[in-house]
Write a structure and sequence with these properties.
Blueprint lengths: L7 E3 L16 H11 L9 H7 L4 H13 L3 E9 L5 E9 L6 H9 L15 H12 L7 H16 L4 H9 L9 H11 L12 E5 L6 E2 L27 H24 L1
Helix pairs in contact: 1-3, 2-3, 5-6, 6-8
Length: about 270
C-alpha cells in the first residue's frame, strides 16, 4: 500500500468488470490496466513499485501510464481535504477507471459533478429492506410481511441518509417495546417517524485540480485535454509582439538621463 494520499483511487459509477474491459488497448497497456484495476484503493501504483511486480521497466511503465491517461483511464492531480477545525491540506491523487472517460467527464469529476452513466444493476433487496426483514429473527414480536417491509423501507432509508447505521436503527425500533405488540408495522412506522434524526449538513464540494502527465504542471481540466498541457503538446501560446522604440528616441532619452545625472552631481559638489 502507498503512503496515504498517494495510492490508487477508483472513480465512481464504473461499469461492472468484464473480460474485455481493455481489449481495445495495446497488449502492454491492456495488461498494466488490468493489473491496476484489480488492485485495491490505496495500493501503490507508482512506476517504481509497478516495475517490481510487472515484467516492464520504469521507462516502459511511465510511457504506458501516460497512454492510459490519454485513453481516459487515468488522471493525476491534487485534492484539498478540509477538516472540521478549519484547517486544510492538499494531497496528491491518482484516479483510475476501467470505464473509459472523455475530457468532459473528467472536468465534471474535478468539480464533483459526475454524471451517472453506468449500466443499470439488477434490482436487489435494499439495505433497509434487509434490516426490516431480519427484525423478526431477534425480536419475534416485530415479524413483518414482505409487503410491510417494502412499505417501511423508504423510512429506514431516510435514517441511513441522515447518517444512522444498522445498530442505531435497530436499537430505536426494538428498545422499550410494549407487551404485547399488537400491530408491529404500525408501531415501527410511528417510531421511524417520531425518532427520525436531524438532517446532515450538505457535503462540501471537492476541491480538485489535475496535473499534466508529462511535466506535472497543475491546471484546470479544460487546459489539459487527454491529461497533457498545451506546452507538452507543442501548442505554445502566440507571443505578444513587442513595440520597439526608434533608435533616435532611445538616444534622446538616454542623453536626457545622463544630463539629469550630471546636474545632480554638480549640485551635490556645490553643497
Amino acid at each position: 500500500m502507498a503512503t496515504p494520499g498517494y495510492g490508487k483511487r477508483s472513480t465512481p459509477d464504473q461499469h461492472p468488470r468484464t473480460a474485455h474491459d481493455f481489449a481495445h488497448l495495446p497488449p502492454r497497456e491492456a495488461a498494466i490496466a488490468a493489473y491496476v484495476d484489480r488492485l485495491p484503493d490505496g495500493a501503490d501504483i507508482s512506476v517504481k513499485t509497478l516495475a517490481k511486480q510487472l515484467p516492464y521497466g520504469q521507462c516502459a511503465l511511465r510511457t504506458a501510464l501516460n497512454r492510459l491517461q490519454n485513453a481516459g483511464r487515468l488522471r493525476r492531480g491534487r485534492e484539498r481535504l478540509d477538516s472540521d477545525t478549519g484547517s486544510s491540506r492538499w494531497i496528491t491523487r491518482t484516479w483510475f477507471t476501467r470505464t473509459a472517460r472523455n475530457d468532459d467527464w473528467w472536468a465534471a469529476f474535478t468539480r464533483g459533478d459526475v454524471p451517472n452513466d453506468s449500466e443499470p444493476r439488477p434490482p436487489t433487496r435494499s439495505r433497509a429492506h434487509i434490516l426490516l426483514a431480519a427484525l423478526g429473527r431477534t425480536t419475534p414480536s416485530l415479524s413483518l410481511s414482505a409487503a410491510e417491509c417494502a412499505s417501511l423501507a423508504p423510512l429506514v432509508a431516510e435514517w441511513f441518509a441522515r447518517g444512522a447505521n444498522e445498530d442505531v436503527v435497530r436499537h430505536a425500533l426494538t428498545s422499550g417495546l410494549p407487551t404485547p405488540v399488537h400491530h408491529p408495522a404500525a408501531l415501527l412506522r410511528r417510531r421511524l417517524a417520531d425518532k427520525l434524526p436531524p438532517e446532515l449538513p450538505p457535503p462540501r464540494p471537492p476541491h480538485r485540480i489535475l496535473e499534466c502527465a508529462k511535466c506535472g504542471v497543475l491546471g484546470r481540466p479544460e487546459a489539459l485535454p487527454g491529461g497533457v498541457c498545451k506546452g507538452c503538446r507543442g501548442e505554445h501560446a502566440p507571443t505578444r509582439p513587442t513595440t520597439l522604440l526608434p533608435a533616435p528616441v532611445v538616444h534622446a532619452r538616454a542623453g536626457a538621463i545622463r544630463a539629469a545625472m550630471s546636474r545632480k552631481r554638480e549640485e551635490s559638489m556645490r553643497a
